[in-house]
Structures are given as structure tokens and as C-alpha cells.
């Protein structure tokens, strides 16, 4: 299992963009939680998502990270991926 966290300024399509990328990589989303909150400094609406995902056989975490980094730059969000400590 891999934990994915995403944070960025809220705008339409964030969930669509990340789930589309994950589906294209044949990644399974086991759990997804999202929330919108107000940034303390700027007062902007921020979007946060936390997901537990399962990589298909043959897809490395490094390969997925590279694909996600490109998306993160395009939609201007911070994305963090790490192997779930319980799976180590």
C-alpha cells in the first residue's frame, strides 16, 4: 500500500486530474479522503486529499512518482508519496 497526500489551492478538476492519472497507471484507490480549508496566511481556499493506493504489479513507486511530479507541476499542487509503514 502507498500513501498519497496532495495539497494545493482549490480549483475545479483536481480530483479528476489525479484520479485520471492513477487510472492510466492502473493504480487502485483503496481509500480517499478530501477536505477544503482556508489557508491561514493568504485566506485562499485550499484543497487537501489523502489516499491509500495499491500499485499494480510491474509499476514501481519511482515510476509513479515521476508521472505524478509532472501532474503536480501542471496543476500547481504539492504531492507526497510514501510506502505505508505497515507494509515495510
Task: Provide the fold topology.
Layout: E1 2-9, H1 14-24, E2 28-38, E3 45-54, H2 61-75, E4 77-83
Antiparallel strand pairs: 1-3, 1-4, 2-3
Helix pairs in contact: 1-2
Q: What's the number of structural domains?
A: 1
Give the radius of gyration. 13 Å
CATH fold annotation: Alpha-Beta Plaits
DSSP, total strands = 4
Classified by CATH, the class is Alpha Beta
Instruction: Tell me the fraction of residues in β-strands, as a range.
Output: 35-45%
CATH architecture, please?
2-Layer Sandwich
Q: Note the main sheet.
A: 4 strands, antiparallel
Mean pLDDT: 91
Strand order of the largest sheet: 2-3-1-4
Portion of residues within helices: 25-40%
User: By CATH's scheme, which homologous superfamily applies?
Assistant: ACT domain
Description:
30% of the residues lie in helices and 41% in strands. It is an alpha+beta fold and 88 residues long. Helix 1 (14-24) packs antiparallel against helix 2. 10% of the residues are buried. The mean pLDDT is 91.
Characteristic terms for this protein:
88 residues, alpha+beta, Alpha-Beta Plaits, four-stranded antiparallel sheet, 2 helices, globular
Describe, in short, the structure shown.
This protein is α+β, with helices and mostly antiparallel strands and 88 residues long. Helix content is 30%, strand content 41%.
Amino acid at each position: 500500500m502507498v500513501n498519497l497526500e496532495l495539497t494545493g489551492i482549490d480549483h475545479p478538476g483536481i480530483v479528476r486530474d489525479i484520479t485520471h492519472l492513477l487510472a492510466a497507471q492502473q493504480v487502485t484507490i483503496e481509500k480517499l479522503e478530501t477536505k477544503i480549508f482556508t489557508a491561514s496566511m493568504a485566506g485562499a481556499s485550499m484543497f487537501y486529499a489523502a489516499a491509500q493506493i495499491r500499485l499494480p504489479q510491474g509499476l514501481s513507486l519511482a515510476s509513479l512518482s515521476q508521472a505524478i511530479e509532472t501532474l503536480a507541476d501542471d496543476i500547481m499542487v504539492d504531492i507526497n508519496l510514501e510506502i505505508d509503514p505497515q507494509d515495510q
